[in-house]
Design goal:
Blueprint lengths: L6 H10 L1 H10 L4 H5 L3 H14 L4 H49 L5 H16 L1 H28 L5 H16 L1 H28 L5 H17 L2
Helix pairs in contact: 1-2, 1-5, 4-5, 5-6, 6-7, 7-8, 8-9, 9-10
Length: 230
């Protein structure tokens, strides 16, 4: 398609009417897919072909490419600003909901646990499933750490034995993190407890408090008890 557009005309189309420039490119044979994807390399090749055929000058092709680049940059900025504004609005909505839930908890209208559940649902709605899942995992970890701290205090106060505390924590791990995670955690804890017992007995042998044979017998008994646990 023979085209003899002046530089001023192309500048006008490029700066003020990007849609007209797109129509011109389509009319000159550029595949729509390249234009929709804003494939500048393909567009440059198409314009270079047009220059070789004499359909337009190098200057005109350069003006078109520059206009497309500027249009893409301005579009990205506009999209980015829109996305940023949307995120800011969602954050404001969440902060307002958080403030409301806090007031309801203080007034005794709902429990702190219910407030957290409602806020988690709002987070999922506003920020997507992944954000909700991360927050849910963080909450479960907080609950476990609180339970662990509580059990430690109860053991120190003599209310329950260390063995009972471990059993309770195992049940909590299963409830919060599932069977496979709790098994891995329990296996790791058993190894840590065995190594601690081994270290303690070794120190007792070095101090002459017990014989090495007695220490080995205790460790064997400890291993036997650990193996019997599910």
């Amino acid at each position: 398609m023979k085209s003899f557009l002046s530089r001023n005309v192309i500048l006008s189309i490029s700066k003020w009417h990007p849609s007209l420039l797109a129509l011109w490119l389509l009319a000159s044979g550029l595949p729509a897919a390249h234009l929709e994807a804003q494939n500048l390399q393909a567009i440059e090749q198409h314009l270079a072909k047009g220059v070789r055929k004499g359909n337009l000058t190098k200057e005109q092709a350069a003006v078109m490419i520059q206009a497309l680049k500027e249009h893409r940059v301005s579009k990205k900025k506009a999209d980015g600003a829109s996305s940023s504004d949307d995120m800011a609005r969602r954050k404001q909505r969440y902060m307002a909901a958080e403030k409301k839930m806090k007031a309801m908890v203080q007034q005794g209208e709902i429990s702190e646990e219910d407030a957290k559940d409602k806020l988690m649902g709002i987070r999922k709605e506003l920020f997507g499933e992944s954000g909700g899942k991360k927050d849910d995992m963080a909450r479960r970890k907080e609950r476990y750490m609180a339970a662990e701290k509580k059990m430690k205090v109860m053991v120190q106060q003599g209310k329950i034995s260390e063995e009972d505390a471990e059993d309770k924590l195992l049940g909590i791990r299963k409830e919060l993190f599932g069977e496979s995670d709790s098994k891995d955690a329990e296996s790791s804890r058993r190894k840590e407890r065995y190594m601690a017992a081994e270290k303690k007995l070794k120190a007792m042998v070095e101090k002459g408090e017990i014989s090495e044979q007695a220490a080995q017998e205790r460790l064997a008994e400890y291993r036997k008890r650990m193996a019997q646990k599910p």
